[in-house]
């Protein structure tokens, strides 16, 4: 053990000498390792941070939640002309499903609309994502209310002119005033603010803080469905203990019968599952990781060649010393480990510099990305350290073997 500690000390000393005596050569050699480690760990940290933020946004939504509507959320074999002729999903469809399909924990009717302008006295906010939806969405999306309340079932059914605002919308409209009970204008109509949601931060499809919820039946008074109307959907959350595949089949059978579809006729609707959406997100994140590895791998390859180059030069410069060491009884493995340790130390130094830059970038990014949390995990830092070590081992093994096999007499003669 003492021998290897001494060997590590000597190798570290040789590595430092290589760094100080050949500054430009060493800098250029380690630059590839530094850039490679920086690229890989930065990409992994960014993708992990994105994945964590997405999962936080989806945590309140059950993956088994389904959206029954006229269009598909993903690729489909149904031709475009056929999809365009599908009937809109109406409120009556929602009413039928919640009354006749068993094993439903919660269901809601939503109308997909465009961003709206919200006004309160002299204050105006454009591009607010107003969601016309029935009151059951409160249980499906686990909406958190900071002030006031969400609209009730009777208000939802009657289409009462009430609205629940996102935190940012309420803050921009009312400042420090209490928004509850205030009247604002949306769709050119007056609505009473009855609730404000808690601050949530950035999320998929925009921040929930920039949203508003109104009863779907309120919007249905002046926006009708039909082929050219506003598209709607039934959101269905099955009970947790049901077989999802069997539940989906029952849902389709009952809805086909409701729409009068005969055996052999294709469905004129789609059942989109959130699990498919999350799987697609996982696939995208996996692809991003893979592309990051491929691109960064070229930098690591260049770094590995740089380390190998500097080690071959080091062997050449110390040929005389190697001959003297072997003539004094140094074994081949001593010489082998000496150069391997030196290669690993050089690579680890480059890797640590790369990790340091990632850490600096993560701190800067966290200051400018607002609610997006950029996370550099201990796992990614450990991965960077391991990769650096592997690069050093792979790059140094051939120069180390060539050094260990030198004949002592020839080495001394060559080095003179």
UniProtKB/TrEMBL annotation:
Transmembrane segments: 27-47, 290-313, 334-361, 381-403
The organism's place on the tree of life at top rank: Bacteria
Cited Pfam families: FtsX, MacB_PCD
Cell membrane as UniProt keyword: yes
Topology term for the membrane: Multi-pass membrane protein
Keyword Transmembrane helix: yes
Protein name, entry field: Putative ABC transport system permease protein
Annotated source species: Gelidibacter sediminis
């Amino acid at each position: 053990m003492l021998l290897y500690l001494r060997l590590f000390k000597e190798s570290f000393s040789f590595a430092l000498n290589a760094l100080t005596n050949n500054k430009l050569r060493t800098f250029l050699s380690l630059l590839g390792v530094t850039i490679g480690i920086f690229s890989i760990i930065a990409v992994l940290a960014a993708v992990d941070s994105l994945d964590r933020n997405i999962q936080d946004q989806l945590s309140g939504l059950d993956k088994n939640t389904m959206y029954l509507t006229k269009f598909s959320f993903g690729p489909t074999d149904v031709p475009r002309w056929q999809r365009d002729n599908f009937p809109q999903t109406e409120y009556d469809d929602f009413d039928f499903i919640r009354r006749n399909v068993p094993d439903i924990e919660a269901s809601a009717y939503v109308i997909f609309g465009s961003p709206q302008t919200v006004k309160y006295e002299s204050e105006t906010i454009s591009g607010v994502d107003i969601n016309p939806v029935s009151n059951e969405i409160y249980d499906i999306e686990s909406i958190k209310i900071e002030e006031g309340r969400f609209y009730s079932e009777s208000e939802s059914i009657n289409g009462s002119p009430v609205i629940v605002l996102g935190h940012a919308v309420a803050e921009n409209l009312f400042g420090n005033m209490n928004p509850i009970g205030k009247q604002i204008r949306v769709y050119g109509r007056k609505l009473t603010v009855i609730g404000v949601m808690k601050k949530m931060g950035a999320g998929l499809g925009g921040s929930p803080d920039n949203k508003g919820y109104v009863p779907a039946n309120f919007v249905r008074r002046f926006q009708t469905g039909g082929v050219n109307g506003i598209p709607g959907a039934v959101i269905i959350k099955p009970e947790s203990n049901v077989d999802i595949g069997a539940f989906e089949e029952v849902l389709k059978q009952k809805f086909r019968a409701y729409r009068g579809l005969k055996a052999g006729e294709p469905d004129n609707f789609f059942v989109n599952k959130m699990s498919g959406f999350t799987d697609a997100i996982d696939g995208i994140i996996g692809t991003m990781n893979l592309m990051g590895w491929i691109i960064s791998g070229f930098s690591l390859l260049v770094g590995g060649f740089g380390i190998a180059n500097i080690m071959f030069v080091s062997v050449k410069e110390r040929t005389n010393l190697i001959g003297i060491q072997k003539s004094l009884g140094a074994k081949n493995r001593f010489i082998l480990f000496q150069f391997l340790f030196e290669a690993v130390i050089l690579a680890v130094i480059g890797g640590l510099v790369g990790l340091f830059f990632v850490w600096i970038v993560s701190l800067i990014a966290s200051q400018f990305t607002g609610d997006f949390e950029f996370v550099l995990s201990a796992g990614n830092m450990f991965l960077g350290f391991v990769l650096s070590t592997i690069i050093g081992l792979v790059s140094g093994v051939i120069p180390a073997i060539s050094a260990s096999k030198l004949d002592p007499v020839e080495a001394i003669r060559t080095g003179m």
